[in-house]
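Feature request disguised as a bug: please show the residue count (200) next to DMSO/TMAO reductase YedYZ, molybdopterin-dependent catalytic subunit in the output. Example input:
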Amino acid sequence: MSALTPGFRGHRRTESDRVPPGQYLVEDFPVLSAGPTPSVATDGWTFTVVNETGERTVWDWTEFNRLPHESPTVDIHCVTRWSKLDTSWRGVSVDTLLADVETAADFAVIHSFDGYTTNVPLQDILDGQAWVATGYDGSPLTAEHGGPARFLVPHLYFWKSAKWVSGITLHDEDEPGFWERAGYHDYGDPWLEQRYQSGW
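Example output, currently without the count:
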């Protein structure tokens, strides 16, 4: 199992122990996006996993919602320095989505309906560390927060939790995404303050 950074399983920690360096707590849920909010209808929504050989696994909205769902409660940390504790989500674990996918890949690229991408090591989204979330705080996920579905990988800065998610492609080599190509850190560990590439 992959090692988890402090704060991911922080139930016994004090509140201050759960806030990474340089972050401040918020009670609301700030809305930040790289572009305008797209309109993604569930009747046209699909989620696609493509392995490194090009094999595809696709779910439509109805099929996706028949998959086993989980209800993680996690702390989230944005690179713009806000943190929010004990956020409640509902979604499908990436472990479930990749259970029948044959792969020897080491990296994943997360894709969104608006063209946004972000990269993560595959080991960081397995073993109960990441979900495709369709609900937040007991309600369907709103469009402004990435609905109908967004990626959720809470132990990394929140730009890795892509909104309006449409799929995952698996790769043998790392492929930087939208913000990574613009100078954000390739990995994005909030506890190490990995906000930008070295030299920024």
